[in-house]
Amino acid sequence: MSRAGSDLMDLLHGLVAESLKDELIRARNAVDDDGNPVPINPQLIDKALKFLKDNAITAPAGNKPVNDLADQLAGLDLDMDEEAAALRH
């Protein structure tokens, strides 16, 4: 079997990117029976992040959504409280 050519690989890469984009848009717009937004499946987010990482895609400096996320993460208390620590033991 011969190796796939660069045109075919470019097409495949584009299809994967387009599929991920479509899935993320569909997930972002999903609502439950009561009309409440449904959280995006973490596995889908992980797949998209892996695709970006594998293709050396990073957010440009000053990217507002990334900066907003960083600000929210900075405000999280990641230390376990006593109740959570008790559950782990």
SSE blueprint:
Layout: H1 6-28, H2 42-54, H3 64-74, H4 82-88
Helix pairs in contact: 1-2
Task: Provide a descriptive summary of the structure in words.
This protein has helices at 6-28, 42-54, 64-74, 82-88. Helix 1 (6-28) packs antiparallel against helix 2. The chain has one domain. 61% of the residues lie in helices and 0% in strands. With 89 residues, the protein is an all-alpha fold.
Structural class from helices and strands? mainly alpha
Would you count the extended β strands for me?
A: 0
Rg result: 19 Å
**How much strand content do the residues show?**
under 5%
Write down the domain tally.
Answer: 1
Provide keyphrases for this structure.
61% helix, mainly alpha, extended, 89 residues
Summarize the structure.
The chain is mostly helical and 89 residues long. It has four helices and no strands. The radius of gyration is 19 Å and the shape is extended.
